[in-house]
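Structure first, sequence second, as always.
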């Protein structure tokens, strides 16, 4: 049921589709139908996507309302499956096994890629500060902005 959906995509960079025949089996458990659709789109893309880009991809699959996408993204975010990058106003699948409230991303300002990294030190430093303030942490997200290796050192053109 998913094989005809890629015909009209032209504007994503680096949009390279391999066969994802097994994609329906790889959904995290407990997703609604719309959340599964959004998950598919995010899983097919390495780079973070904006909500309207996700909607564009899903139009072929019968999703027309932006609210549908926003609600699915909200649900996925609450489940800890998707992270929202405020700086890029984009969404990306979590690379980790479970929900985690401290998140660190390296965001490239040139190609808008975002690499999720694990820095235990950040969490270790943050915890006591939060505890001392009796603060109830929901999310701590660090978006380190700059240039990714590929953009900082572009391969020389022959
Ligand atoms: Zn994550
Ligand atoms: Zn880059």
């Amino acid at each position: 049921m998913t094989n005809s959906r890629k015909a009209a995509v032209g504007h994503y960079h680096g949009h390279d589709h391999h066969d994802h025949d097994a994609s329906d089996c790889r959904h995290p458990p407990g997703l609604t139908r719309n959340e599964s659709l959004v998950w598919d789109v995010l899983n097919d893309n390495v780079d973070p996507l904006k909500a309207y880009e996700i909607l564009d991809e899903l139009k072929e699959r019968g999703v027309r309302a932006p609210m549908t996408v926003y609600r699915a993204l909200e649900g996925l975010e609450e489940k800890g499956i998707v992270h929202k990058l405020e700086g890029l106003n984009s969404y990306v699948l979590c690379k980790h096994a479970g929900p985690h409230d401290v998140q660190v991303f390296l965001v490239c300002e040139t190609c808008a890629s975002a690499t999720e990294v694990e820095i235990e030190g950040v969490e270790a430093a943050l915890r006591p500060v939060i505890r001392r303030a009796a603060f109830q942490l929901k999310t701590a997200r660090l978006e380190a902005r700059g240039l990714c290796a590929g953009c900082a050192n572009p391969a020389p053109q022959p």
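Margin note: The CA atoms of residues 110 and 122 lie 25 Å apart.
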